[in-house]
Design goal:
Layout: H1 2-8, H2 15-31, H3 33-43, E1 52-54, E2 57-59, E3 63-65, H4 76-81, E4 86-92, E5 105-108, E6 113-116, H5 125-134, E7 142-147, H6 158-169, E8 175-179, H7 194-211, E9 219-223, H8 229-242, E10 246-249, H9 265-271, E11 275-278, H10 282-296, E12 301-305, H11 311-320, E13 324-327, H12 329-334, H13 338-352, H14 358-361, H15 364-370
Parallel strand pairs: 3-4, 3-13, 4-7, 7-8, 8-9, 9-10, 10-12, 12-13
Antiparallel strand pairs: 1-2, 5-6, 6-11
Length: 371
């Protein structure tokens, strides 16, 4: 039914307008007690066997919403109502910014993919912090806060920019993510180089510890799939050295070749710059995840994202080393029953496996290779 609806209505709409319309519907449904209870009962049944502990947090399951959908922390209850086990909001920047000029979001329907050059459009960390502070949660969920660099801030002032966001947002975050991997903010990916990343992560860690008392806010870094293998290794080693809590692998890709795109090349070229997400990203994202797990093992938490569409994909990420898995692009194509299908399929996968718990399955593929 959703696919018919998508073909008849959403497919014909500008992607960003369709996003705002769907977002408004989700927020509205979550505000009506009877409706949200009914929707959650249908779309978000909980499976005890999928309960997950990660980053010192207890979650209903391992599958969450990646950053980018709810940039301003406006629909956390709505996304939980649809079945996501955690919701990562953002990317949030220290200063409010409108993002890049429209048109900036594009569908590659034949590839079940998206290209975006949104440019971190958001209300800014002060406004988002107020929204999180005033939030009266309806559903218990885990909220991650993803922070990035304000576009107009020069690279040499990036650390201070991230620290400002950290000081405002860390107290409201179950975990905090430093995003240095979006291709849509000039110079941002330069911060993935270890000599830039070390002082940045150190400063954010110190700011979070200074700002939040009584608990330690887990800190993760989100990396690009376009890093060379030796740079992936360097980030992994740095994360262990600094005592980072996790790595999210991966963000969108700037690559177009070698992804097996079905969309005509001239169409892709006409779209222009931007990060590509969705099914074509699957193999490289999985490759980066496997490389990270081989490097860090169980010492830090890995979050797999990029090209995740089905329960099989989630299970594959877990076996490859991910404790948590996230999705976004497939939600556009699969619709509101997506999480329900993921959870049901994942429970079936676990029941048919030799593993008693999901935790036992994390990294199992690597252990088979090294046994």
């Amino acid at each position: 039914m959703y696919r018919i609806f998508f073909d008849l209505i959403f497919k014909r709409m500008d992607p960003e307008k369709a996003h705002h319309l769907a977002f408004a519907w989700i927020r509205a449904a979550a505000r009506i007690p009877v409706l949200r209870t009914f929707v959650a009962a249908v779309l978000a049944p909980r499976y005890k066997e999928l309960r997950t502990e990660a980053l010192g947090l207890r979650m209903h399951g391992p599958f969450g919403l990646a950053a980018g959908f709810d940039k301003n922390a406006a629909a956390i209850d709505g996304m939980t109502m649809l079945g996501f086990d955690h919701v990562e909001i953002g990317t949030v920047t220290a200063q409010p910014q409108p993002g890049n000029p429209k048109k900036r979001l594009f569908r590659l329907v034949a590839d079940r993919a998206l290209i975006n050059r949104m440019g971190f459009n958001n209300d800014g960390s002060a406004a988002v912090a107020r929204r999180l502070a005033e939030r009266n949660p309806v559903f218990r969920t885990t909220v991650g806060v993803n922070i990035g660099k304000t576009k107009i801030v020069p690279e040499e002032e990036a650390v201070a920019d991230y620290v400002t966001s950290t000081e405002r947002l860390a107290a409201h975050a179950d975990y905090l993510v430093v995003n240095v991997s979006s291709p849509n903010t000039p110079g941002l990916r330069n911060l993935q180089a270890v000599d830039h990343l070390r002082p940045l992560l150190t400063a954010v860690r110190e700011a979070a510890d200074r700002t939040v008392t009584g608990r330690r806010v887990p800190l993760l870094v989100k990396i690009a799939p376009d890093l060379a293998d030796e740079d992936v290794d360097a980030v992994a080693d740095l994360a262990v050295e600094l005592g980072l809590d996790g790595i999210i692998a991966t963000n969108t890709t700037i690559a177009r070749d070698g992804l097996g795109l079905r969309t005509p090349r001239r169409t892709v070229e006409a779209i222009g710059a931007g990060g590509l997400s969705g099914a074509p990203l699957k193999e490289r994202s999985l490759e980066v995840l496997r490389r990270l797990y081989a490097r860090v093992g169980d010492r830090i938490t890995l979050v797999g994202v990029g090209g995740v569409e089905t329960a099989d994909d989630v299970w594959e990420r877990i076996l490859a080393g991910a404790t948590l898995v996230q999705g976004y692009s497939a939600f556009i194509y699969e619709g509101p029953f997506w999480c329900r299908a993921i959870h049901r399929g994942l429970a079936e996968k676990l029941a048919a496996s030799p593993y008693a718990t999901l935790a036992d399955a994390v990294g199992a593929d690597h252990r088979k290779v090294t046994a």
